[in-house]
Amino acid sequence: MLCSSYYIVCPVQQAKFGATAIREVLEETGVKAEFQSLLSIRQQHKHPGAFGKSDMYIICRLKPVSYNINFCPQECLRCEWMDLKELAYTSHTTPITSRIAKLLLFGYKEGFPNIDLTMRTLPAVYSGLSYSLYHKELPASYETQG
């Protein structure tokens, strides 16, 4: 779990990424948050923690609506708000944490549409069902036929 200066990133194991990320962050840190976007997906085959199977780690960008941390000691060893630039360039973190922090720095500087995967709900081919499709934002001129 990564707590940055404005965003919290956490692993999600269910199909409804946003709702799951919000719930997990609240349970593990006590911080209330709103889903902003899907930011990244890590895929690793033969993952030791997944009994040698493939593992997917979904990283969401959330916006906190509360800032007081009351973390669960069974879930987290430590939890604190950190300066994002410091987190991006410290040698005391994992490669994935450093990379995600750098993505967030880029998003702050150049705009989050440059890094976010947005979600659209689309009708499935099965009657009455729908699905969530995550992708880079599509320009408005491509949304309608023209």
Automatic annotation (TrEMBL):
Q: Which InterPro entries match?
A: NUDIX_hydrolase-like_dom_sf (IPR015797), Nudix_hydrolase6-like (IPR003293), NUDIX_hydrolase_dom (IPR000086)
Residues in a coiled coil are none
Origin: domain of life? Eukaryota
Q: EC number(s) in its UniProt entry?
A: 3.6.1.-
Q: Which Pfam families match?
A: NUDIX
Broad enzyme group: hydrolase
Any keyword Transmembrane helix?
A: no
Q: Where in this chain does the record put each Nudix hydrolase domain?
A: 18-90
Keyword list (alphabetical) reads: Cytoplasm, Hydrolase, Mitochondrion, Nucleus
**Where is the protein localized?**
Cytoplasm; Nucleus; Mitochondrion
Gene3D superfamilies in the cross-refs? 4.10.80.100, Nucleoside Triphosphate Pyrophosphohydrolase
Q: What is its main location?
A: cytoplasm
Physiological role? May contribute to the regulation of cell proliferation.
Oligomeric and partner information: Monomer and homodimer.
Q: Which family does it belong to?
A: Belongs to the Nudix hydrolase family.
Q: What is this protein called?
A: Nucleoside diphosphate-linked moiety X motif 6
Q: What is the protein's species of origin?
A: Ranitomeya imitator
